[in-house]
Design a protein that fits this description.
The chain is an alpha/beta fold. The chain has 20 helices and 17 strands. The longest helix has 24 residues. The two termini are 51 Å apart. About 3% of the residues have low confidence.
Length: 564
Amino acid sequence: MQQWTHAIGRAQQMMLEHSTRQVARGEPPFDATAVARVQTDYINESVAMWQRFVDGSGWLKSNPDPAPADSPAARKDRRFADPAWQQHPFFDLIRQSYLLTSDYLTRLVDNVDGVDPKQKAQLRFVTNGIIDALSPSNFPMTNPKVLEKTLESGGENLVKGIKHMLADMEKGQLTHTDGTQFEVGRNIAATPGKVIHETPLYQLIQYTPTTETVLKTPLIIFPPWINRFYILDLAPEKSLVKWVVDQGITLFMVSWKSADESLIDIQWDDYILKGQVDAIDTVRDLLDVESVHTVGYCVAGTTLAATLALLAAREEADKVASATFFTAQVDFAQAGDLTLFVNDEQLAVIEKLTTSGVLDGRYMAATFNLLRGRDLIWNYVVNNYLMGQDYAPFDLLYWNGDTTNLPAKWHRSYLKDLYRDNKLVISNAISIDGTPINLTLVKTPVYIQAGKEDHIAPPQSVWKLVDHFTGPHRFVLAGSGHIAGVVNPPAANKYQYWTSATPATSLEEFTAKAQETPGSWWPDWVEWLRGHDPETVEVRGARRPGEGRLPAIEDAPGRYVRSR
């Protein structure tokens, strides 16, 4: 106990002395007044914390729950939910010292001035990552739950945890769920349908109708190729695919092939021309319709925006009746934490990881895990490595770990041209197949969905689609984030969404005007689709998979989604 308290005290003293020297030298240029205030708060809170500790037996009597009396520790934090963190003086000291020092470091970084905003954001991100990694909950000797479990099981939890860890090291990826409980085509990605078109880049799935009549205008969904498409077709009760089919819509899904040596030369032009445009023309020809509704999710939404601009420039915009964007961006000036990974140094690292022409999908998975390290990394280190718990079955986390490889050429150019240089919103700065891209030419009706808590495509970034397109639009702000904000079936009665009956010139103005509606935004979206073309047709011929000019190749979900 003396050693631990001495170490914590020394650490706090070193932090104070270090920041004082930095301010005195002016390196880095802190706001001296703000730093002084932070230091004063830190000293006062440290003194109060130590005073409670040295009171000894009076610790619990005078302060049975120290957290409410201690502002940094008063935050809700699942890492310290176990009562032992507050009831035992030793662990409460560790907890409060950690939270106090974490708060001090975070506030100190926030008061760094005179640096580029992006550099400051990078510093904040790295600092938060280090803080999360050094949490006492991550170490067996300073986590009361782990100590208790170790004593109860005679150390079996650690043995089991090491087994989990070695298995993850073997496969090169952190496990989040029990993958043996899921099988693509059986209990996920199981909506009935057929693959009716196949290219080296993608398979096109047509789903079996469940109604006697359907909208005349079909719908094509373009999911991101950085993930598997079945995020939109999980268990039946969560499946957007099944729900859309049940609404009386002829639905097609693009299933992208995970990159291998045959796709090393694929670039963005190919995803547009050989992917999206090819799928649009295939469906139009199959069903003999003038136009299709389209959906682009995430990176496929960004690509759909370029596709629409290409079609407009070539006077072929009438091929698309409407476009829906799920958490997609075209202007990357405020693109969130992913921009922190895009600079010359990071691009050089990526270059070294893709010598084969293909980026291993596990690197992308690790990147997304880092964005939410506390939930997607350290939570599993504690529960499955230290506590030795079994993995719970969870379809969304199974999908999250089902990685896809990416063509290195496309990946590098996408990061450079869009995330770093933001060329898509500069008229004619990018050309596709020799045609300059200008987003202001897009007059196609668009439905734009953003997630209120999205950390990958922040709502203020998604909103910018409104600024660059010139046709009619409907903007919807959904509760939750990048995944749960999209995959929110009406039957779940979860979250909410916001819409505005009057136009807005900014997200702030939209938020001030918007009306909140409980539940899922899916019904609002389908009504919007019907409003653009309410005509229906009977289900017969090509409206059934494999009964038109394109015979069925295989049952949905096809081979490509299973390829590794």
